[in-house]
Amino acid sequence: MPYTTLLTDLTDGVFTITLNRPEVLNAFNDPQAEEVQEALKKAERDATVRCLILTGAGKGFCAGQDLGALKGRSEALSFREHLAHTYNPIISKLRSIEKPVIGQINGAAAGAGFGLALACDMRYAAAGAKFRMAFSGISLAPDSGTSFFLPRLIGYARAYEMAITNNPMTSEQALAWGLVNGVFPVDELASATRALAVKLAHLPTKAFGLTKRAMNKAFQLTIDEALDYEAHLQEIAGRTADYREGVAAFLDKRPPKFEGK
Questions:
Q1: Where are the domains of the chain?
Q2: Which candidate, 98, 53, 43, 96, places its Cα nearest to that of 240?
């Protein structure tokens, strides 16, 4: 389908989704939320998609909700229903899609846009990019998964401080605290992210998906339950063509040729 608020590209097994409303720092309106959901579903179904990149056009990654798009709707708006139809399905899909998702954080990520970044499996950020919770600035509670992911990534005290002070975090601080995997000059960010994505797309992505499934599940389990679940997933992984290829390549002393099967 043609998108009006996104740019998409599929090359070398890498599906890139670019939020494309740069005039409002890629802040979300309802059509953009719907199109991101559709693009993620397409990427999940398409076997030729082996890795995803999520980024923004222009100078910002995503400024969260476009408050101008809600003007005149506040009194009648159900915040619960709005989240259920916009951000919650996006965050849920980013976590459940069993392919690596890299956030290419090219600029400001705030509010729901911060949640979008946090839901990615890995994050590469541009030097100068900033992260902000933003919700308390308009007297709202956290949403879009921020209350779930942020304390797990940087600890409760730091996350709570970010939430209530609304102070931004620089990309350099995010790297020091483990929120991002790497920081690059603005003009090198896209090439660095793509190099990683292409590399991952040629590796055993079926195993990567099972790894993601295991780590998602582990949040809910005891150690004994986690061990049992790992054994269950290993049974699946051990039946794949990629496993057979990996063992054969190791024994033959040659590079493996993985197909994600």
A1: 6-201, 205-252
A2: 98
Q: Residue 56 corresponds to which tokens in the numbers above?
A: 């923004």
Full-model pTM: 0.94
- In the CATH hierarchy, which fold is given to the domain comprising 6-201? 2-enoyl-CoA Hydratase; Chain A, domain 1 (3.90.226)
Indicate the Cα dihedral angle 124, 125, 126, 129, nearest 10°. Answer: 170
Q: Which of 177, 136, 135 is nearest to 155 (CA)?
A: 177
The Cα–Cα gap between 206 and 213 comes to 11
3-state secondary structure of 165: helix
Q: How far is CA 173 from CA 84, 126, 131, 181, 254, in A?
A: 32, 12, 10, 12, 41
**Which CATH number describes the domain made up of 205-252?**
1.10.12.10
Greatest Cα pair distance in the chain: 68
**pLDDT tens digit sequence for 148-202:** 999 999 999 999 999 999 999 999 999 999 999 999 999 999 999 999 999 999 9
